[in-house]
Structure formats: C-alpha cells, structure tokens
Amino acid sequence: MSNINPALLVANNILEDAFKKGYYISPMKLQKLLYFTYKKYIKDTKNPLFNESFEVWQYGPVLPSVYSEFRNYNKSEIRRYAFFGNDDVLLVSEQHTEIYMAIDYVLDKYRHYSAIDLSDLTHKDGTAWHKARTRNELYLEDDEIAEEAWLYE
Predict the structure, then answer these.
(1) Alpha-carbon span 153 to 59, nearest angstrom
(2) In angstroms, rounded to a whole number, what is the distance separating the alpha carbons of residues 119 and 150?
(3) Which of 106, 100, 125 minimizes the C-alpha distance to 36?
(4) What's the pTM value of the predicted model, to 2 decimals?
(5) Quick count: other Cβ atoms within 10 Å of Cβ 148?
(6) What is the rounded CA–CA span in Å between residue 18 and residue 25?
(7) What does the pLDDT read at residue 41?
(8) Hey, what long-range contacts does 110-118 have (CB within 8 A, 24 or more apart)?
(9) What is the pLDDT of residues 93-136, one digit of tens each?
(10) Quick one: pLDDT band at residue 89, thresholds 50, 70, 90?
C-alpha cells in the first residue's frame, strides 16, 4: 500500500460522491474540490493531507499527479476512478475520520459550484494561490493555505 497516492484516494472519494449524486465533475472541478479539502484538513489538524504540493497553474492550484491521471478528460466529465494497478476502487476509509469530515464539509459547501466559480475563489486577493502567483513561485505554501479565509460560507 505504500505506493498508493493519497491525493488520488481523496480524488476517488470526491468522484464517488459525484457518481452517486449525479453531478458533473471535470478535471478542473476535481482539482479545486481537492484543494478545498486539503485546506479544510490542514486548518483542522495543522498537518498536510498529503506530501504532494499544489502547483500554481493558470486556473488555480493543481496537483500534478491528479492532473496526469485525468488529463485525457480535458473539460469533459470524468467517468472513472483513479487507477491503482488493479480493478479495485480504492477510497479513503471512514476510519480516517478527519479526512472523511474534510471531504464531506467541502462537498456539502462546494459541489454545486462550477469549475470556473471554484477557480475564481482560488484567485481572490489573499489566497495562497494569489500570493504564490504574485511572488512568481511554482508551489503554494501550506501555512498560507491554512491561513486562507473560507469563501461562500
């Protein structure tokens, strides 16, 4: 299990919700929901959710591993889970309460917004993405993610 990418596990949980509840999720929307889940988790626990850093891309924070997994969908709806080299769908276990709660919180608040709306939220003045972009940095800083205000609450 050590070669399992935790970001893709969380992505699978978000996709599971979209598939069950029937809402549209593109790669960009998935990236933003992952970002907000990471933000919620780091605010609540003071620890990063996974080791991979969010990069500063044109439309907001992006995890390269998740981009790579789903890039063939471009702007289309994602219709499958992340692959882990077998046919099993791997999800974050409900035993991981803090992760599960962060995912649930974010999906409850943000699942109905479009990818563009979510991207716009990440671009606001004072966000970690905006600060990193202003400094011309490649990666967002975890402490700035943790300090970021919640929008649309």
Answers:
(1) 22
(2) 14
(3) 106
(4) 0.93
(5) 23
(6) 7
(7) 96
(8) 110/32, 110/33, 110/36, 110/152, 111/17, 111/18, 111/21, 111/23, 111/33, 112/23, 113/152, 114/29, 115/26, 115/28, 115/29, 115/32, 115/59, 116/28, 118/28, 118/29, 118/32, 118/33, 118/36, 118/60
(9) 666 789 999 999 999 999 999 999 999 999 999 999 999 999 99
(10) low
Residues 6+ apart with CB under 8 A from 41: 47, 48, 49, 98, 99, 102
- Predicted confidence (pLDDT) per residue in 61-80, tens digit: 999 999 999 999 998 999 99
Is residue 25 packed enough to be buried (19+ CB in 10 Å), middle (13-18) or exposed (0-12)? Answer: buried
Q: What is the largest CA-CA distance in the chain?
A: 43
Q: What is the CA radius of gyration of the chain?
A: 14
Q: What is the C-alpha separation between 78 and 26, in angstroms, rounded?
A: 6
CA distance linking residue 99 with residue 46, whole number of Å = 13
Strand-pair partners of 120: none
Distance CA 53, CA 104 (A): 22
CB crowding 101-132: b at 16 or more within 10 Å, else e: ebbebbbebbbebebeebbebbeeeebbbbbb
